[in-house]
Design brief:
With 123 residues, the chain is an all-alpha fold. The protein is 79% helix and 0% strand. It has helices spanning 5-18, 22-43, 56-87, 89-94, 100-122. The longest helix has 32 residues, at 56-87.
Length: 123
């Protein structure tokens, strides 16, 4: 289990990074989805028919949730890697005893978790 310590440490660092700014992590995606729902759902919802069984809002909401999940998962990993490289922290990470697979998996799992948290918050 000692070989997983660098992985868990990097994963924990990435997960803790989102809690520094909860407004950016949770509130902004919720506002964005609400605005899309308000603009498209209320203005176009009555004019577009998607079928007899569901309403337009029921049709749009899963797409808005998935949009929030995918945007935040991508933004988490790309922003974290960019800032680490820009600030020079990437060099510090590359000299640690962490393998490439653990490095990639820690960033990937942190991004997936952020996407799921945002998706749950939007719902």
């Amino acid at each position: 289990m000692l070989y997983l310590l660098p992985f868990w440490t990097l994963l924990q660092k990435e997960v803790q990074r989102w809690f520094v700014s909860p407004v950016q992590t949770l509130i902004a995606p919720m506002i964005t989805s609400s605005l899309y729902l308000f603009i498209f759902g209320l203005s176009l919802g009555k004019r577009i028919s998607v079928g007899t069984d569901i309403t337009y809002i029921q049709f749009v909401v899963p797409g808005l949730v998935l949009m929030g999940v995918l945007n935040n998962a991508f933004a988490n990993s790309s922003f974290s890697l960019f800032i680490s490289r820009y600030l020079g922290h990437m060099v510090d990470l590359l000299v640690t005893p962490i393998g490439p697979a653990q490095f990639i998996m820690a960033y990937t799992i942190a991004s997936i978790l952020r996407g799921l948290v945002v998706g749950a918050a939007i719902l």
